[in-house]
Amino acid sequence: MTDERLLDIEHLHVELPARRRGGEPRVVIHDVSLSVAPGESVGVVGESGSGKSMTTKAVSRLLPRGAATTGEIIFRGSSVLGLSGRELAQFRARRISTIYQDPRAHINPLRTIGDFLAEGVVASGAMTRTAALEAACALLRDVGVPDAERRLTQYPHQLSGGLLQRMMIVMALLPSPDLVLADEPTTALDVTVQSDVMAVLAEQIRDRSLGLLFITHDLDLAAAVTDSLAVMYAGVIVERGPSREVSTNPRHPYTAALLASRPSLSSVTRLTAIPGRPISAFEAGPGCVFAARCAYATDRCRAERPAPQLIEGRSVACHRAEELGSVLPKVAMA
Ligand SMILES: Nc1ncnc2c1ncn2[C@@H]1O[C@H](COP(=O)(O)OP(=O)(O)OP(=O)(O)O)[C@@H](O)[C@H]1O
């Protein structure tokens, strides 16, 4: 990792148009800032509806029609929001790659793996078909797939889910992008296969000095494979910092609650569910977005939105972060 930045999301705010005429626009992302350095894997973790996918969609400029975006997204020093149509097409084809959740939903069952892998880079003019297949073979070996030549002649139904997701990793790496966006890439896989596939991806990111934005609801998995974590709730990043510290010594009550609510593989303990239901950004009141579910909320928390403050090398959006440092439970590394 270097000091140079690959991606800087600065004070991103996204509003979607009202669902009905006369309704209010709906805020889905509020004041989100995060950055990715070359070689760095960043996990964005949160419950359903917290705005994780919207954040990556904003980076690739694939937000729903009518979305209003303010703030900045700087990629290698240039504004993504300012790209022209042609520049945007280049940016999407060459600079970023996306890995989606369910490979079988994105792959044509009637075409070979080789055809599937080569298609994008050949169509964008980046490589000839022969060069693409050679590069795909080399990448398949890098991600631990033996017998690469034979795999390229096979059809999707002949591959397991884990193997197919490695193919998606190869497809993402083939155009030599700078940044990989992975949105719940392993959710469709068995738990043991999930961590293997993510470890392979994180290793490639490190070795090639790319950046990774890994979107997931699985805090343990994200903590295991990423360098930094951003914990999102209701369109806001409530805590951000080095993965190990955030996942073992949480400084925001929401991070602590997420950690307490997940099952442990090493011990049998009673799980503590987070009371209430998760909300979207547009349902939040003027105060802290987590106040209604927070065991430590005060009147100030309900009235005034906390600005992120820097505490022990991480950013925490909580009025009480300083005093709760000794109160929130620490977690042993799995
Ligand atoms: N295409 C869309 N049109 C309108 N609203 C949307 C659309 N997609 C998502 N939303 C809303 O935007 C908010 C953030 O959604 P987002 O998909 O980013 O959440 P998420 O954290 O990725 O959740 P999940 O893990 O369920 O995908 C939610 O309130 C959601 O209902």
UniProtKB/TrEMBL annotation:
Record has Iron as a keyword: no
CDD domains found in the cross-reference section: ABC_NikE_OppD_transporters
SUPFAM superfamilies: P-loop containing nucleoside triphosphate hydrolases
Protein localization: Cell membrane
Main location group: membrane
Protein topology in the membrane: Peripheral membrane protein
GO-annotated molecular function: ATP binding
Domain ABC transporter: 7-259
Alphabetized Pfam families for the sequence: ABC_tran, oligo_HPY
Residues spanning the membrane: none
InterPro entries in UniProt: AAA+_ATPase, ABC_Ni/Peptide_Import, ABC_transporter-like_ATP-bd, Oligopep_ABC_C, P-loop_NTPase
Keywords, in A-Z order: ATP-binding, Cell inner membrane, Cell membrane, Membrane, Nucleotide-binding, Translocase, Transport
Family: Belongs to the ABC transporter superfamily.
PANTHER family: ATPASE AAA-TYPE CORE DOMAIN-CONTAINING PROTEIN (PTHR43297:SF14), OLIGOPEPTIDE TRANSPORT ATP-BINDING PROTEIN APPD (PTHR43297)
Protein name: Oligopeptide/dipeptide ABC transporter ATP-binding protein
